[in-house]
Amino acid sequence: MYQGFEDLIVWKRSMKLTKELLPIVQKSFNKYHPLADQIIHSAISIPSNIAEGSERGSEADFARFLFISRGSCAELRTQLILAKSFTEIEYDKTYADFILEAQEISKMIYGLIKTLKTKQ
User: Fold this and answer.
1) Among 13, 22, 47, 75, whose Cα sits 20 to 30 Å from the Cα of 110?
2) Domain map of the chain by residue range?
3) pLDDT digits 0-9 by tens, 38-71
């Protein structure tokens, strides 16, 4: 059993994704762009909802917030696909890499949801 959300690998990976993605998004869009704001919001939402749900006190609440987090993964992937069409900047970590990582995180979240559901 984990001690807190900080121990969850899926939370750590989603934090890493967010930390790596935000500076690239900010550089990709030279000026304010609503899509950049949406990408940032979605990325932040993934680990935030994992954390909030884990502290809610029930496995049902935790699962509900995990579904929200998983939805944020899908939202982020969609926004990154759109963003790639607006930017032509190359970085060490490409948009495709971020999309793949968001897919993996989504799968991990789903696995955690299934684990919670079997405990209920």
Assistant:
1) 22
2) 14-119
3) 999 999 999 999 999 999 989 999 999 999 999 9
